[in-house]
Amino acid sequence: xxxxxxxxxxxxxxxxxxxxxxxxxxxxxxxxxxxxxxxxxxxxxxxxxxxxxxxxxxxxxxxxxxxxxxxxxxxxxxxxxxxxxxxxxxxxxxxxxxxxxxxxxxxxxxxxxxxxxxxxxxxxxxxxxxxxxxxxxxxxxxxxxxxxxxxxxxxxxxxxxxxxxxxxxxxxxxxxxxxxxxxxxxxxxxxxxxxxxxxxxxxxxxxxxxxxxxxxxxxxxxxxxxxxxxxxxxxxxxxxxxxxxxxxxxxxxxxxxxxxxx
Length: 262
Description:
Layout: H1 19-42, H2 50-66, H3 83-100, H4 103-116, H5 125-132, H6 147-156, H7 167-172, H8 181-197, H9 201-209, E1 213-215, E2 240-243, E3 249-251, H10 252-256
Antiparallel strand pairs: 1-2, 2-3
Helix pairs in contact: 1-2, 2-3, 3-4, 3-5, 3-6
């Protein structure tokens, strides 16, 4: 692990003593290292081969950190509602899609098709992934909610098959590109409706505990979407807001719902 991930050398797991305090300390160090790795990677988000860089970085730098014993809850270590946490999730999705969804060429083709349908092209891979993560045939079938799910996708191609999958297993692991457009569209509409009716726990916590959201209507951000209902700011005429405490980004309609959770 040390040779593959220089950053992981700084996370010292002391097997003698320390207990929970040592685990908490290592977790904090790992989180800071992960933010640094992520920042270095995102410098290249406009590069044509950025998804390949995501694969290489996740395998060599991110995986050793997320595989540590201090990550016993199988999380991504960074809170999903923060900017770093959201970007890490998108990096993991791009890496998984590159490995399991036909490689860089397939991702480039899908992004080009998406850009051709818009008046303005996406400026970088992270922006594109955020916009399409729930509707893309290559991304929608993948999940970055748990590290184990992403890890299984990234490392499965390197593991020999022990048996032929039965019919049930074949259905369960059907590649995302085989999902019909009608199915993806229907699933997206269902998810969006559910999101509006039932905010996630993170959104509810923001509604209940925070009250300092500020307007970000003039933000030049081509992938800004509401963290509650997932509507893109380019697809609506609504003001957008960002919570100053947890960085939750909400459209005006969802921000108005905050008063109902006080």
